[in-house]
User: Fold this.
Amino acid sequence: MEHPLQPPVDYQDLFDNAPLGYLLLDASGSIERINQTGAALFAQDAEGMTGRPFAEWVADADRERFDRYRRRLRESDEMEKLFVRVRTRHGEDLTVWLRGVASGDHPARLSLIDVSEEHNSARQQRYLQSQLTHLARRNMAGEFAASLAHELNQPLGTVVLSCDAALRFLSEGGADREEFSGALSQAREAALYASSVIGQLREFLKDGERDAQAARRTVPLEQVVDTVLALIDANARDNDVALSLDIADTLPPVHVNLIQIGQVLVNLTHNSIEAMAGLDEARLSIRARPDRQGRVLVSVEDTGPGVSADILDRLFNPFQTNKAGGMGMGLAISQNIIEAHGGELWAERPPSGALFCFTLPAAARGDHEH
Amino acid sequence: MNTEAEQIIHVVDDDPPFLAAIGRALEVLELPVRQYPRARQCMEALDPDQGGCLITDLRMPDLDGLGFQQWLNERHCPLPVIFITGHGDTDTAVKALKRGALDFLRKPFREEDLLACVRKALCLERENRQRARDEREARRRFAELTPREQEVLKLVVAGCANKVIARHLVISPRTVEHHRKHVMLKMQARSTSDLLTLAVLCGVYRLSLDDDRGEYLGD
Assistant:
């Protein structure tokens, strides 16, 4: 068999025009080399990007995550992956998927894929999901309120009509005692019935609270945060909010219902993120540290417009809302949950932004047995 | 039963204490009140020729208020309907009013509000029934006129003088005069304006401020 003479492989061309973006990062995070496919993602050519820190193209909100990623790259021998938002020369925002390895003193080798489209559809889906959940919750609350209204208006209707009749009997003076007392005792019966409806509602809510208490566990605070971190992180990233998390190592464990405290965290962060919509500088930080009494103090702080002094007093009242379409129940429910756990929830007015804090008592020895 | 003279108030609500309370309030009107815990029972008992009004809860176990209203509309039942509800369901209220409900009371309501509402309904119903009876009577009298007399009546109420009518029908003014007397007698009209009212009631003359007012409606 005759072998045709093969031309030598042009590795430079293979590198530059590979279907994937390739990138070499030195220890300081500067681009040592980038192929043309990679540079084209940023609407630049490879020469223009070489020697500059890759972080220049990373979206502000993702800088911190990117720095952590570079640390991970250096410290591990595994393939490290990161979804990160970048900005092209034309100001277009993309989400790229980085996969990289670094070994020894060699520059880190990374591949670069544009996943903006997939990312956007995932974001869209998450948004719809959260809207649905919100709607379902509001609907449930609305239906509950409507049926409660009916249950109460029914006997109240009888009370008002019976009292009016009794008053009429009095002013006419012609009615006999029996008619008069008949109307009054009917009003009384109906009022008692209305009060029993409220009693039943109380029992119902108490049952719910008893179940919630039975589900409490003694856990480190990290675990509480972990249950909802993915949710909060996704919410922050979808809204271009930089999220930072700082949990002290020295915290005592807490005895809590994970879902309820998680709900409080989601609620507070959601309020912050919503309040910062459209702001250039949108940062959200969740901090946890022990307070002087040995309780766990969790704070949620944002760089939004903050809480104005005139609504500070009413902030935790039910049905108090500034949001279009809001029920005004979020903070009221959150405060209830924290107080049921033996803690406190309050708002502070820092020089800028909003600051919500809550405390949770350290788990007592007896709590472990539950 | 005396179907012409009196009005009956029908009340439907599935809550017995409320039914009793509303019954006590309605005593003021000194009219018979019939109470039903279910819509179906009320449907069976309703006499279409009987005057009065109907008060019904919008939500009931066997049939909702809108369904009840539709049933009444299908039977051309002229009873005015007042809805009551313990819910804040404005949508249903709007729907009910659009389909001809007279009014809407939200529980809890005061006796005077109920009475004002019912008085209005009864007054409206009485007027409607009176008008329907007048129309029936006017049509009956008109039907007893000869075709020629009917023509003369239409021309008289259109404002034509006897001479004009005579020319139009190609008869003598004296014959017109003769027909006219019969028309007045048979229609039991004391004056031309009486005759006009009767013509409007039996639908052969239309009252209007438009340019074509007084238009002769033909046959």
User: Anything to note?
Assistant: The two ends of chain B are 39 Å apart (CA to CA). Chain B has nine helices and five strands. Chain B has two domains: 7-134, 144-201. Chain B has a mean pLDDT of 87.
